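A protein record pairs a chain with a discrete description of its three-dimensional fold. The shape at a given residue is found from the number at the same position. Here is what such a record looks like in full:
>
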Amino acid sequence: MATSNLTRTGTPRIAADAEKVVIPVSGMTCAACQSRVQRTLDKAPGVVDASVNLMMGSATVAFDPSATTPRALVETIRSTGYGAELPIDDQSAFEEQEARDRAQDEEFQDLRRKAIVSGIGGAVAMVASMPLMAAASHTARGAAADPFMRWVMTSLTPVLRATLPGLYAIPADLLSYGLLALTLATMAWAGRHFYTRAWMSFRHHSADMNTLIAVGTGAAFLYSVIATVAPGVFVAHGIAPDVYYEAVVIIIALILTGNAFEAKAKRQTATALRVLAKLQPKTARVVRNDLEVDVPIDQVRRGDIVVVRPGERIPVDGEVVSGQSAVDESMLTGESLPVAKHAGDRVIGATINSTGAFRYQATTLGTDSVLAQIVKLMRDAQGTRAPIQKLADRVSSIFVPTVMSIAIATFVAWFVALHISGAIGGAAVVHAFAAAVAVLIIACPCAMGLAVPTAVMVSSGKGAEMGILIKGGEALQRAGDVTTVVLDKTGTVTEGKATVTDLIPAAGIVREDLLRYVASVERLSEHPLADAIVRVAKEQGLTLSTAEDFRSLTGRGAIATIDGHTVAVGNEALMNELGVDVASYGVDASRLSAEGKTALYVALDSRMAGLIAVADPVRPSSRAAIDELRAMGLDVVMLTGDNQRTAEAVAREAGIDRAVAGVLPDGKVAEIARLQAEGRVVAMVGDGINDGAAIARSDLGFAIATGTDVAVEAADVALMRGDLMGVVQAIKLSRRTMRTMKQNLFWAFIYNVVGIPIAAGALYPAFGILLSPILASAAMAFSSVSVVSNSLRLRSYHAA
């Protein structure tokens, strides 16, 4: 197989000897922050690949250990002005998720507390400002250059004069200094992080959302402070010494309110992951010194005998040694029907025992358990970036400087236009100042930074609920582009396990006797089909007899004496050799062969006793899944190493138009390469073992996992349920997710494209509409909330 140093999407392939580290990053608040860290890491020496995720607050970095170290990468991130720490080596996926949940809860509670307090402060500031605005009715602000404040004054002034007449008797200077103190306290406590982060960005020669908020509210505050402390400075230049304290407090309150809603919504995007992480029981009942004792889950040792009673959650992975039951594995496969478990069967930790009681031996523990693998895989996937994110990154990298330039241009344009129209200097400055602040406040890079990762997080969680583990944003996006689905036959389209499909006894022969005779002979055979016959006989409760004088005839069959009768099982050549007439069974044998089944003749004492057919049956769900794939406009191709007749029979039964037979693993790779050369985007579905090379060569690899190995290395998507409906659901989920991502990006971009010109006053010449900085802050605060909320709709998605 030809090798390439490019991945499926043309990005550099991570070298086999590269190491990977996930570094927690703090202080990122918007797409501009994420973009700055991403660009810095991409340029760092020794970095092979980097993925910075705003939602997860992390940077996943693949690096050359001979060129750099995790500590050096941490310092590289810190050099951008954001916090970074080395990951905790011995922290499990469950502990990592619990720590993340605690941090998110603390963030939400802190934001909510600050939003409530600053909201109350904003209301007080608004009321206290009414007398000042009424007294300044002759100034530009008193004349209500701001339409929002005009409405507030018109609505509140009569009510306040009636209910709080003493308020209007308080000296203006006293009110101004009181508002100064209230605003300063709000900025120093509730809004402190805006200013500290903006200063940090400035020190590192960058700008982000905090810069816009800090400059906008800071300018309004400084303007008001000068108007309060030294009003003569403004009066000397013909500018009214109006104050904007209430605007500063309310803007901070509204932005914090939006941040609180955003934090709550962001936490909901990881609901599926959080539920998985909490599924593992805290204790297990194990047998120690012939006694059943409850021990903490981390004290269970490999080889311990674990006891499970009806209704209990299975604590760790293992193998049943005694007893039987039905186990609900829906958390793993998405399949609601319980699965029967007997001695020798595997059980998975965190699944639920339904009816019976059983004992099992603990096998894989800790980070090797299936649940831990799923949680880790989901966290890794949610920390990756979809290629469509690059568009938002390019815009974010220049967004804040562009907005600040627009704000300056807005101030100059308003000031010049009003001077030309004959407005006095004070009115021109106030109008220009309000418009510039509105531009700074309404601009929101947050929504762009959240548009893609929120959708990736929610959809990957939804996929896990359906038994589909999607390994990252790139795979999620690529699934929606697939045009051709290539299926391996054995274990994918078919069950992957041979079974008896037909029994045709001769006259006078009972079906059960025919099967018992054949199974008694085949029990000593090493032929692959023999196991299937013996297994079916045992499942039907038949008692097998001891075979005597057993002879295996290579390429023809086997002969043995069973209960005094000579029984021969094999092909037509063996029957001809024994002189057994098989002419009456020719039609049945041809029909079975045409159906892709292996027909075995059975002779009893040199007379035909019947036919038995063995085959690897098509999965019951394969036909429906393939019909759906074709209805979605996808071409379906089946590859198999079997002969053409068997391949055509299986393809016909499964509804596949094209089957390629007789291909070895390298032939499968060549066929996928040929399809790709035709311009197709090819998905390969297999078991991830003998078709691993073909899965790796495809544009998108699906592996039907065994139920215990969820991290099939070559595959982009692991299907925990053993049927093809997972492929259908994964592609449908991808298409739905891509629509959501595009909607998010559209609204994130259109919000800024429309909002910034309106804030700058684009509608004023035609309609006389100006946007208040306060309303601008409300719009900004809830723009990112709308994007996260749109992504959360994916949680209710159900594949038809």
The longest strand covers residues 607-615.
